């Protein structure tokens, strides 16, 4: 990293881009090749108190000149005895200026982001993408600096920094488009890191679905170009694991299938180290099968052929039944390995309330759920979210099945129970709200809990909407305001408003 081990001798452009400089003059080779404005090098400046102290240019200067120079220097010293302390003080201030905080702005933003956003538990309890270290890749560095500056600015409500981060985002996008147009560069780790980072930034800052949906679809296309074999190495596999849920959520929203549902994408990346595949990743395998079902359902609703509708609907019902069996098998295995992962504690006063016939304010539930780890909480809430997603699909197709497991009352009761379990887990997630990226993965379960419970229970529905507002925009705590973390939560709020009283995922 430029700057480590003393003051950097790199040129201005390399210091700014945080890349290694070869220190060639007048312009470094890296800047010449990259067509960058080099900016030159820092030069050490010496302060001289008059021409009398200057060294003669000619090394063979006469002894007379030397004596004259010495006499002048002595005279200068004698004349300045009364002000020598003041001169030394001025000299020290000139040589060692006190740096302003803006001099370290990038480092502050990066360190804060690494500490508060990326140095905590992810959805499965491990710190993962977008991981970062400064490298020789300007594109990846620009993308990460855009993320760090925007995140720091939004968390501290510094509009100037947010604006700077978004300007860097525009620069990064232009550079990324150029790299993607190159057949070789588009499959490099540099481009992969950059796309993942910008996709992550969209989740943080954009309440416009076009942003994160477009980036997630682009990331999926990049994965497809690289192929599942390219993700067998540890760094690439971790990026894949971190990115899969976002890609699947985007596919659900767009009503299209995803390449991640194919067997090779569920097996090949872990073929070399099968023991590295976590229980969360097996659960995500099940989630990956769901977008296809909603895509077919969408085609049914727009089709005019009755026989085609009946055939396709029965196909969906059979697939739902098949996936539900996989989901239940996963849950049985998970319970056997995490028997004591979940426990009840007294419910705080921040939960949903209702008024009983006597006008008393009562909590909807008396206890909430806590977990041994955030990964256990995320796995449990995602399991319940997938269960609701599948049961809701079966509920919409009840006319096309005589399966006793899909009775109307049975589906409704199972969906309600799963939704309540998600709601009772949310407080635990909010305890880890500022730690790592794990809190992002409660957004989809919250959306499904509203589908299962919030639409029919106004108390819980309003409470869920308040939670998403808290996550998206911030919530007052005492005399200060905590900045919101995931702007994409505001998209879910808009979705709530659009589907109240209607059907929909």
TrEMBL record:
Domain (Zn(2)-C6 fungal-type): residue spans on this chain: 10-38
Gene3D superfamilies, alphabetized: Zn(2)-C6 fungal-type DNA-binding domain (4.10.240.10)
Pfam families for the chain: Fungal_trans_2, Zn_clus
Alphabetical list of SMART domains matching this protein: GAL4
Keyword field: Nucleus
Domain of life: Eukaryota
PROSITE patterns the UniProt entry points to: ZN2_CY6_FUNGAL_1, ZN2_CY6_FUNGAL_2
Listed GO MF terms: DNA-binding transcription factor activity, RNA polymerase II-specific; zinc ion binding
Descriptive protein name: Zn(2)-C6 fungal-type domain-containing protein
Species whose genome carries this gene: Mytilinidion resinicola
